[in-house]
Structure formats: C-alpha cells, structure tokens
Amino acid sequence: MTTQPHPDAPVRPRVVLGVGGGIAAYKACEVLRRLTESGHSVRVVPTDGALRFVGAATFEALSGQPVHTGVFEDVPEVPHVRLGQTADLVVVAPATANLLAKAAGGLADDLLTNTLLTARCPVLMVPAMHTEMWEHPATQANVALLRSRGVVVAEPASGRLTGKDTGKGRLPEPAEIVELAKLLLARPGALPRDLEGLHVAVSAGGTREPLDPVRFLGNRSSGKQGYALARVAAQRGARVTLVSAHTADLVAPAGVDVVRVGTAEELRRAMHEVAPAADVLVMAAAVADFRPVSLTGHKIKKTDRDPDPVALTRNADVLAELVERRRPGQVVVGFAAETGDEGGDVLDYGRAKLKRKGCDLLVVNAVGDGKAFEVEHNSGWLLSSAGAETPIPHGSKAQLGAVLWDAVRALVEP
Predict the structure, then answer these.
(1) Are the C-beta atoms of 285 and 248 separated by less than 8 Å?
(2) 355 annotated to a ligand binding site
(3) 1, 69, 309, 359: least CB-packed within 10 angstroms?
(4) Which of 164, 186, 208 is the last residue in one of the domains?
C-alpha cells in the first residue's frame, strides 16, 4: 500500500544525485544523508561503476527510493526522461573524467547520462579524479564546454587522492557540496563564472588577543560567513586568498589558498601582504578592537585578592588602512555587526560606519539573539558608497555571498 502525502504537506525539493564510478563514491552517502535530513527528496542514479564502490542497497536505504542504472528498468515510468524533467536540481558527485566527457559529448548510454540530457534545472557536477586527469587538455576542454552551456562544474579540492598521491582533484567535502546544492536551489543563477581573472582576498573568523598562556580576549565569530564568501568566489572563478583567524573547525573551501592567523596584528600583516596584488578586499573577520597592553608569561593565578585591572590598548583599524592604501580600481568591502540602542538603529550605525570607513560596500548585520554569529543563516543590508541600500533577505550565508559578489562584479573594472 502506497501512502499518499498530506495535501498540506510542504513540497520537498526534488534532487537527482548522480554518482560516478570513482573511489570518492563513498562520500556520496554523506551528501545523500545531509540532503535527505534537510528536507530534500533525493533519487540516487549511480553508474554501474559507482555500484562497484557502494552497493545499491546503501543508496536505497538512505534515500527511501529505488536505485537503477539502466534505461530498461522500471520502463512504464520512463525514468530516463521523467527524472530529468521533474528534478529541481541534478548533482553529480563524484563526476569522473569519463562522466564529464560523456556529458560534454551528449552521450546517453545509461540512466544518469540520459537524465543529464533531459534536465532543464540547474546541474552541479563535482569532479573527482587524479591531478593529471583533471589537468589534461581534454578534461579542461570538456569542463569549459559544459560551463559554456550553463552547467556548474565545481572546482575540485586539493589533498590526498587514491593511494599515496596528493594534488588537485580531490572531491570537496560533503558539507561543501550540499551548501552549493542548496545555494543553486535557492538562487539557480548564483554561480556564474564571472569572477575569472580576479584575485580576491577575504578575511574570516575572530581574532584572539592573549592575556597569558591560557586565556585570551576574543569574540563569538565562527568564521562561517567569511568561508562562505570565499567558497562562492572560488566557484565563480576567482583566485581566492582566505586570511583565516579562529574559526569553528571549518574545512578550507575547495580551490582556496588559506593563510592562518591568530591575533589582530597577525591578520593586519597578512591582509597588507596580499592587498597589493588583489582586485577585491573583503574584511569579514571580526577583528578585536583592543588587546592587552602586556602579555603575562605565566598563567595568572586565582588568589583571594581581587585581580589587577587589565590595561588595554587599541588595535589598528585594518579596514580603514586598506581603504587608505588601496590602489586605483581596487574594491574594498567591509562588514558591520551592529546592535541598536537609544542613539540609533542598526542601519543608522551602518550608514555612519560606511561614511567613516570610506569602503565601496558595507554589509550590515544585526547581531544578538541568535543572529549572524554562530548560526548557519544571515540577513542584513548591503550599503554602497554611491548611496544604494539593498536589503539582504534571510537565507544561508552562501546566499548572502552570492548577493555580495553580484554587487562586487558590477564595480570591478572589466
């Protein structure tokens, strides 16, 4: 007996998850789990090669739907046409060199390649292969052709490959694949290759100012917004340098160069080092305004008497320095985490900061009560030095990133 969904039940986005025949096929199980647990209806369409790495029973158990590879199974349902026609998104992870070649050539010799031909929704292909295969002119030509047709071919990660090999071609982590998938479901045009040829530098996370070998002054920034900005920029074709202060154990985005820092002064030096060669500078990090005047070389002990006051000194204003030293044509973006008070609301303080800092764009976020810090979503306003004020609706931090890069692209000289 088939149970029909309640007529008032929310519509679940329909995702086809294609799985290619590479060792990274095992990661597709985590992609599938994350998608189903976040409310998506997922139909897995593996290749025969994929089933040599992960059995059909695993995909069926995790998705709750049948798994087929050929066009002559379940023929009355015409799956080789219906799956693509009814999908809201097709994700192929891993996309092997063979699959990319078939998709570019329009071949259709199994259920997955037929589905790719009939899909009229966004298609996200996530490559995974050895570095030599990824860099081969044939693969690069296939990727360029697919991208010219509107297919989103993600940048692979760098790291451990099969055996002892390392290099570019590793499948990005499942969480990153799911974030890109959700972004395309929310904004189908969010990942054009419109930042190619640009070098962008993004700061992220919260700085920590040491008091002694154990304690520090810090803030609640998780770094998730800065990492989302870097991830979206890389997938839109930019060369990205991510200057990362303390984060909540975030994995580096695929295709991004990461510079690790701890204190505000370390972040300042790193940003000034990368700034001269960058086309765009984005200060999304939560930089401490103050640091202790002196660092105690030993742990401050708890005693019966009241502790001595901690003397503080002001840190440099990194955003203001970057604006002051920017070269012609360089775009500088700031972030403002604000709360309202008797002196004004969040937007009032954001406008004042934009005027005071002199940056080209400023993202203003209201913080507190589960907003902005340590959460998966964000909202706010995008203020321009030209006077435009664009509300950013509540959505994922990747969605905010897409809004910001749209605005940056309009400012960058061609």
Answers:
(1) no
(2) no
(3) 1
(4) 186
